[in-house]
Structure formats: C-alpha cells, structure tokens
Design goal:
Blueprint (H helix, E strand, L loop, with lengths): L1 H8 L15 E2 L6 E2 L1 H18 L8 E5 L4 H16 L5 E8 L6 H15 L3 E5 H5 L3 H8 L4 H20 L3 E3 L4 H14 L2 H4 L6 E2 L7 E2 L7 H10 L16 H16 L1
Parallel strand pairs: 3-4, 3-6, 4-5, 6-8
Antiparallel strand pairs: 1-2, 7-8
C-alpha cells in the first residue's frame, strides 16, 4: 500500500492496458497512456492486422523492403522481419536501396543500411543512378540547378526501385510510407488539382496491374509512433534530411499538416 501511495504522490499512472507497469508512453494515435511493452505489442499487432486484413502477402513470396536508412524504412525492416518470424508469413525478405549519388547525404545513409543488413540478417541490393542513368543527382543539380530537382529525383527513384526489384526477382516491394506521408500526398494532389492521382494515392497497394506491386504496411501508422518505436527500441537509423529538399513543395504541405495537428492538440 505504501508503494501505491508513493506512486500516487508522484503522479505516476499505471498502464491502461496491462494495469501493472507504469505508463511511460502517451500514444499519439489513441491518446492512451501505456507502458513501453504494451506500446510495442500494440504497434506490432496493428501492423500485423493491416497485413492480414488487406492480404498484402502470400506464403513463399519474395519481398523487397525499400531501405533508405531513415526511421520509416528501418522500423519497417525490423518489424516486418519480426512479424515474418512470429507469424510464419513464409516471406523471403530483401533490403533494396537506391543510391542517388548525393554526397554528404545518401553515402552516409547507406552506411546505416549496410549496418541494418547485418543487424537484421537480410540480403541487400543497392542500385545507383550513376549505373542506371549515367548521372548522379549531384551532377544533375549542377546542370539544372536546385529548382524542380525533387521532381527529377522522384521519377528516377521510382524507376530505380523497379529496376532493383526486377534484378532481385521479387514479387512485391514494400515501402515505409506512413499515414502522415499519405495525408501530405492527398493535400498535394488537391492543391495541384491532380484528380487521377488523388483517386489512387491512398491505396495500400499500387501497381497491381504491373509486374511488381508496391505495398504500404504503415498506411495507418502515425509518424510520431514510428519515431517513438525507433527511439525506445534504440534502432539504428539515419535522421538527416536530403540536402536538396528544403524548398520541396511537399515540405510546405508537411508543415501545414503539422500546424493543424498543433491546433487540434
């Protein structure tokens, strides 16, 4: 009883799930106050349910994880590897990275991916703009300047992922796009009046009519929770933004959405 009284005096709160451990996390998604272990379980279970309900995979499939070294793809690689073992998905997982040729950014993030390869025991394939197109992104920027360079990079990156996936002979590619990313994309397509993309940008699986579909297991996962998961699990990820992206159109959409979140909270 003394211990319970001491906890109450300090304002400690018990986890609303297990009712045993001290709450140390307030979930941005549900506003529940829970302990770390219950947070891990909830985070992983929700992704597992998304995979099952949307039938994202079939046993025996070869699946490439788009790995940039950032928090989203690093958490995706960690969680998907764990769920694959825990629930016997029967998937053959690979890491697939694109080297755009951005000095001081991609070369550093790829070092993180190489460490993840060892940490998670997953084969890694790296494809580069230089090998595929004969140009690095640094060289492209020197020719066209900083304006619209993200548009060029986006097109090249999508094609490079497809080429890498083809070389790996995978059945699907999964990316770490989360709920925040999708909200930004919806807003961008609204601002651009791009009705065609607006109608398909929220799909959890795209490219089903092509040779290699792409899936987003994090479609309903909040970015804040991905950051919390990576931080508490002490995952090894790279957090620096691309040196060419400060003036990207998407950045303004991201800030607008964050401002709305601050007002709501």
């Amino acid at each position: 009883m003394e211990g319970e009284g001491g906890e109450r005096k300090r304002g400690a709160r018990l986890c609303c799930v297990c009712k045993k451990s001290r709450a140390s996390v307030k979930r941005p998604k549900t506003l529940e106050q829970i302990c770390r272990e219950c947070f891990y379980d909830a985070f992983e279970s929700e992704i597992h349910q998304v995979i099952l309900e949307n039938q994202l995979f079939s046993p025996g499939e070869r699946v490439a994880i788009g790995a940039s070294g950032g928090k989203d793809s690093t958490v995706l690689a960690y969680v998907l590897s764990k769920l694959n073992r825990l629930h016997n998905y029967g998937l053959h997982l690979f890491l697939l990275s694109v080297d755009e040729g951005i000095t001081g950014y991609r070369d550093d993030s790829l070092e993180t991916v190489h460490r993840n390869q060892i940490q998670y025991g997953l084969p890694l394939k790296v494809v580069s703009y230089k090998d595929l197109y004969g140009w690095t992104m640094d060289e492209i920027v020197r020719v066209i300047g900083l304006k619209n360079n993200c548009t060029f990079c986006g097109v090249f990156r999508r094609q490079a992922l497809d080429r890498g996936a083809s070389l790996l002979k995978v059945d699907k590619v999964v990316t770490g796009h989360n709920a925040d990313d999708i909200a930004e994309t919806v807003l961008l397509n609204l601002l651009r009046g791009d009705v065609a993309r607006l109608s398909r940008c929220t799909s959890i699986t795209t490219g089903e009519d092509g040779p290699i579909p792409r899936c987003k297991p994090f479609k309903y996962t909040y970015e804040k929770e991905i950051v919390m998961y990576a931080y508490f699990k002490k995952l090894d990820y790279f957090s620096t933004e691309c040196i060419y992206s400060p003036n990207a159109y998407r950045g303004f959409a991201r800030e607008f959405i964050k401002d709305l979140e601050r007002i709501r909270c």
